[in-house]
């Protein structure tokens, strides 16, 4: 859209540089909400109910790895530009 509005070819690095010169920093927006006391209590109950599980019980649980890997240049994450503080 910027290229069409300005009428010249602009690379993403140019836009990033101008935003940085305006003292704007690129960050991912905060997504997770803090746990409420009710959520904490429910998590504690979940853990306590499973504290007596043996190895056989835990072998039926699938744990998901939360690591993030990007093979290309685009990771489809939304970023916002804000001034520090």
TrEMBL record:
It comes from the Eukaryota. GO terms for molecular function: DNA binding. Residues 5-49 form the Transposase Tc1-like domain. Signal peptide: none annotated. GO terms for biological process: DNA integration; DNA transposition. This is Transposable element Tcb2 transposase. It comes from Trichonephila clavipes. The gene is NCL1_30227.
